[in-house]
Design brief:
The protein is globular and about 50 Å long. It has helices spanning 2-32, 36-41, 89-105, 151-156, 177-188, 199-208, 256-259, 290-296, and strands spanning 52-56, 59-63, 66-68, 71-72, 75-77, 86-87, 111-113, 136-140, 192-197, 219-221, 228-233, 307-308. The protein is an alpha/beta fold. It has a domain at 50-255 and 282-309: Muramoyl-pentapeptide Carboxypeptidase, domain 2 (2-Layer Sandwich). The strands form four sheets. A four-stranded mixed β-sheet has the order 8-11-9-10, covered by helices on one side. The protein has a three-stranded mixed β-sheet with strand order 6-3-12.
Length: 344
């Protein structure tokens, strides 16, 4: 028996070493491929490069980002601790323009701006599936108050649902003509391709909008979005790696495609094992190859150098000179029907 053990022991030792080595290799592989949300979530400033979006709204990144200031003449940014005030320069321009136009022409006191993107885009640690390429932004249906909110208020205040309690329909005590007007204004911009709202809000628009209704085509129903609307612009010139969406269907969208949302099917609980969210499994290898360069790119000298305040052009740090076009002054002038379960 002892002789047999002597013969087996070396083999067992080799096997143990092999298993240990395999574990080490596996550990190295895991360490070499961290989740993309961890890599992009750690970035505090954008990539100092020409503004370009890579990939799709829910699978990509972007360079040359700009931030919207925490406070502007007609806006206030919310949830500042998230550091999601960044977007493609055109996205920031659209938001600044909407804040001015809505205040001057639509009776909207100012925008409360929610999430745009992380400094270099990519998947987020929490929340959205989209907002990855700097071309998405959330705006609260609550208009800006007549005072500046404190830091704690911006973290803790909730946005108000426009719906009746336990209902899919709008509460007429909360909905005003100004809500429809700010949506109409955003839809009027050629850069804007889609505006996502709760199906009940889309139905309210279908039931009440008079005159020109062509802009309703851009307003699409989607899960959630009862307390904010989601503005999405299209791929911008120069972003050859950006993947656009299918065009919105013809018509106003006030047809049976909207009626579907008021059946049981969209709200039926998913069956079977729960699938992990894409952000929880997506690695850098899952994203466009250009996203590696975006992560490795230098940052601008400071946040102030690439932040739009609405009170003049942001300064451009000297260290960013080779990519100055990414931080050009913002000019003063001037979503498909969902098929998966709710992810945004």
């Amino acid at each position: 028996m002892m002789a047999r053990w002597r013969r087996i022991a070396p083999v067992a030792a080799v096997l143990a070493l092999a298993i240990a080595a395999a574990g080490l290799v596996e550990g190295v592989a895991t360490a070499a491929e961290p989740l993309a949300k961890t890599l992009f979530g750690a970035q505090k400033l954008p990539a100092a490069a020409a503004p370009k979006s890579y990939g799709f709204y829910s699978k990509g990144c972007f360079a040359g980002g700009m931030a919207i200031a925490a406070d502007g003449p007609n806006w206030q940014a919310m949830r500042l601790s998230r550091n999601r005030r960044w977007g493609h320069p055109k996205m920031i321009e659209v938001l600044e323009r909407l804040s001015r136009d809505a205040a001057a022409r639509d009776g909207w006191n100012g925008l409360l701006v929610g999430d745009i993107s992380q400094p270099r885009g990519g998947p987020m640690m929490t929340g959205h599936a989209s907002h990855q390429i700097g071309l998405d932004a959330d705006i609260w249906f609550t208009p800006m108050p007549n005072r500046r909110l404190s830091g704690s208020e911006r973290e803790e205040l909730g946005s108000e649902s426009m719906l009746k309690r336990n209902s899919l329909h709008v509460d007429d005590r909360k909905w005003t003509p100004a809500h429809a007007a700010v949506l109409r204004r955003a839809a009027s911009y050629p850069e804007v391709e889609r505006i996502l709202v709760h199906p009940g809000i889309k139905q309210k628009l279908c039931d009440t909008v008079t005159g020109d209704r062509s802009w309703l085509r851009k307003v699409r129903p989607f899960w959630g979005h009862d307390s904010h609307f989601h503005v999405r612009i299209g791929c911008q010139p120069g972003s050859v790696g950006c993947k656009g969406q299918e065009a919105t269907p013809q018509g106003e969208g006030c047809d049976k495609s909207l009626a579907w949302w008021f059946t049981d099917e969209p709200w039926r609980p998913a069956t079977g094992p729960e699938k992990p969210k894409a952000r929880d499994v997506m690695t850098l290898a899952s994203l466009p190859a250009e996203c590696r360069a975006v992560l490795a790119a230098p940052a601008p000298a400071s946040e102030a150098a690439v932040t739009v305040t609405g009170r003049g052009a942001p300064a451009v740090a000297a260290t960013v000179a080779p990519a100055a076009s990414a931080f050009a002054p913002v000019p003063e002038a001037d979503i498909p029907l969902p098929t998966p379960r709710p992810t945004n």
